[in-house]
UniProtKB/TrEMBL annotation:
UniProt main location, coarse: cytoplasm
Gene Ontology CC, one term: cytoplasm
Family: Belongs to the C1D family.
Keywords attached to this entry: Cytoplasm, DNA-binding, Nucleus, RNA-binding, rRNA processing
Keyword rRNA processing among UniProt keywords: yes
Name used for this protein in its record: Nuclear nucleic acid-binding protein C1D
Taxonomic classification: Eukaryota, Viridiplantae, Streptophyta, Embryophyta, Bryophyta
InterPro entries: Exosome-assoc_fac/DNA_repair (IPR011082), Sas10/Utp3/C1D (IPR007146)
Amino acid sequence: MADLAIPAVVQRNVSQLEIAVSDLQRHIRLLTSPESRESIQLLSPADRASYFLAIAKAANALFCLHLRTTGQDPEKHGVKSELERVSVYNDKVAAAIDRSMAPSRPTSAINVPAANRFIEHAIPDLTEEQKQKVREISRGGKRSMTWVRNPNEDSQTKKKLSVSEAAAAFLAEATKDLVPTAPRQNPLPDI
């Protein structure tokens, strides 16, 4: 009669498999415990999606192993479509995480043409030539203003202006550049 004893290598592998399965059962119990459900609620949406995606991958891998142990081919089973679906969601989660990690764009930007239209309409009595100069500036065209730093002015001793003082100074300079010398000195009301 043939020797029906199980080889030692197979016995070792079976005992290692039993240990791995018991560890897996312990981890699954931890994942399905009420404490785990409460901690999942505290995760960010991206982390929560990653968590559920990992569970889906693990469940699919375990089911594929089960199919193989029963002699079935996972490639010919319906689980293959589930694996593809999990792969699609994996790509979506990765894209969402990449978007959340990317540096954010500036929340506001100055629309220069719109700002110049406001300025053009805010300054009364502009001639067509002056309006044309403002439009050229807004298009980035030829600039009629040149800014030259006064060599006698020390930038460290320059006093800081309040917003209203800075706006008044800007409008006064703009008026000098846009409005020719006229009998009245400042057509803009004081702020």
